[in-house]
Amino acid sequence: MIVHLIDGTYELFRQFYGLRRYAKGKAHANGAVHGVLHSILQMLESGATHVGVATDHVIESFRNDLWPEYKTGEGIDPALWAQFHPLEEGLASMGVAVWPMVELEADDGLASAAHTAAADPDVQRVSIWTPDKDLAQCVRGERVVQVDRRRKQIRDEQGVFEKFGVAPKLIPDFLALVGDAADGFPGIRGIGRVTAARLLKQHGPIESFPAEVLGDQVDRALLFKDLATLRTDAVLFNEVDELRWQGPTPDFADCATDLGDPRLAVRASAVRESLRVESPNRPTR
Questions:
Q1: Can you list the domains of the chain with their CATH numbers?
Q2: Which of 59, 94, 178, 200 is deepest in the core (most CB within 10 A)?
């Protein structure tokens, strides 16, 4: 089977701003939610069987205690922020496994789900649907891959190396050195992408650097590495088959109407019916 893990926060942002450009500011109040739910239904129509979605139920996490300048919810458009919880409710009602993260972030949820799924020998591949560079650290060979929907790329371990110049396991070190503006930490002064890749290739992880390489910036670099390291120990499910989509819940028609898009219920029911009439030996994708 193939397990599909989706960055719900990224997808909501993508749908919100894409719809805003298309609708010229006149989008439906839950338009981004509609877009995300329809995109997941499209995946199910295309043969996906095991799907999980992680969201940032709150933007702040334990990392804000480690680094006060770490990203917060400040500046998020209120019209976008208002769609986070309806998305989570819509996913659950549609019968899709959803993990609203509170103390951890959605990225940690995806990393934890990937770790659990990859431990199952029946899983052929884990696809993590997000372009977020943080998640590149989860890639393992060709079995755990990152899918960049926008660029239409599937990035395996070789693809990560070609993009960043380091192996997936060194992505936290790489981000610690170069910084991550999206997450709110600046990296180490004087070190850019090329230098970071060279140092990591030469010395391995930051802990192995000779003292003179970072000097008095070593503690800062290790802090940033901690910020960039995704947690993989969140218990989101016990068995991979808990992620198998069985169809929408009985209340999804009402939920879709409340969200302002009754077509969602019609489409979800059609997908469920198509699964019923197909062969029981239908391959999982």
A1: 2-160+231-277 (3.40.50.1010), 163-228 (1.10.150.20)
A2: 94
